Amino acid sequence: MPITIYGPTVIQEIVSSEVSFTDGQGPLDRPFNVNTVIPVRATALSDGRLESTGSRSLVFRNFGIVNPGTVQGIELELEITRLARVQDKTIQIWYQGQPLGQNRADLSAGDRHVYGGSLDLWGSGNIDVTDPSFGFLIDLQPHITYPSSNLVYLRRVSLRLHTA
């Protein structure tokens, strides 16, 4: 089964009150080596709860896929400097302006993590991976158990398509 690796050409920030991202070059327009402008934080409160501020969601899309054949599996590889204190909140397919299929967030994901598999379509049904709107929604958060204050460094996003 052939595997082809693609990189996104478009990055889009979903605007919210959470911490924004920068690529260090003005507007967020490079889909690699991005980081939060301030740390994401989880602060311990006197009652033992954590008050947290996560990052804005990012959409990585338009992978430039042309005639891939029959897609049998989708893998997403993320390279993130997590410093053991940054966790997934949402890792999901993005299609035609909205999240689709299963959220693959993994609270135990390391700095380099692969989501999906060779026969895994993420519960998305039959989607057109050549559509420029096809991509991934990535939302990260501070550790859900421990207090922390860390910048998020998202180094690389790669798509691996398994085809027949």
SSE blueprint and pairings:
Layout: E1 3-6, E2 10-14, E3 21-22, E4 34-36, E5 40-44, E6 50-53, E7 57-61, E8 71-81, E9 86-95, E10 98-100, E11 112-116, E12 135-142, E13 148-150, E14 153-163
Antiparallel strand pairs: 1-14, 2-7, 3-4, 4-14, 5-6, 5-13, 7-12, 8-11, 8-14, 9-10, 9-12
Please name the defining characteristics of this protein.
164 residues; mainly beta; Jelly Rolls; six-stranded antiparallel β-sheet; 0% helix
Give structural notes.
- With 164 residues, the chain is mainly beta.
- It has a single domain (3-163), classed as Sandwich (Jelly Rolls).
- Helices cover 0% and strands 48% of the residues.
- The chain is built from no helices and 14 strands.
- The protein has strands spanning 3-6, 10-14, 21-22, 34-36, 40-44, 50-53, 57-61, 71-81, 86-95, 98-100, 112-116, 135-142, 148-150, 153-163.
- Strands 1, 3, 4, 8, 11 and 14 form a 6-stranded antiparallel sheet that branches. A 5-stranded antiparallel sheet has the order 2-7-12-9-10, with no helix packed on it. It has a 3-stranded antiparallel sheet with strand order 6-5-13, with no helix packed on it.
- β9 and β10 form a beta hairpin.
